[in-house]
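Q: I have 237 residues here and want to know how they pack in 3D. Can you give me a structure?
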Amino acid sequence: MTRFANALRLEFTLQIRQGFLYAAIFSGLIWLSVLLPMSGRLRAIAEPYILLGDTCIIGFFFVAGTVFFEKQERTLSAVISTPLRFWEYLGAKLTLLVLVSLLVALTVPTMSHGFNYRPLPLVVAVVLGTLLMLLVGFTTSLPFASISDWFLAATIPLAVMTVPPVLYYSGLWPSPLAYLIPTTGPLLLFGVAFDQISLAPWQAGYALAYPMLCIAGMWWMAKVLFVRHVVTRSGGQ
């Protein structure tokens, strides 16, 4: 745990230096500028989409940005030569960015219309949604040498993780195939948090269990790709 605490402290320092924490604050201000001119009824309708977008930005783009900063500064090679384990390295990133995402996700709706939401489903949705997007962003960034190379290819997984759930939730695409996308669960929980929908027992179970199962699978994939694209290449150098 001492190594993990040190990794978390180092990650916090790097996030400050690289400006991602300031970018998260700016992101929250942007969402507020969108929400505040709306009427109270429209704000509640827009909140689930806003929060899904925020978890995608902080999760998907921020973690990829940290990876490319580390590649540019050649710190990844140094990391694998230390006693730091993979779960400590990645866990520090996930922990910090989930906390940042939670801070923004709780601040924006509270400032826009008070405490007229259910905090438990909101917190669970933010944690699950952010973890999903963090792991997708992390795994997709590993094979690429620069953020410009990654960005174009990244639009595909980003679209897959966001467009079908939004179309399903809005009623434009009422297909059960949307349930194959794990971010559908967090979006449904956002709807519950703002009293837009109520979930059947099987839907509530799905919204919790399926994203967690996908998170476990993507963690395994992240470790495999980290070994292939970072550890092996560094050993070859």
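Q: Anything worth noting?
A: The chain has nine helices and no strands. The radius of gyration is 18 Å.
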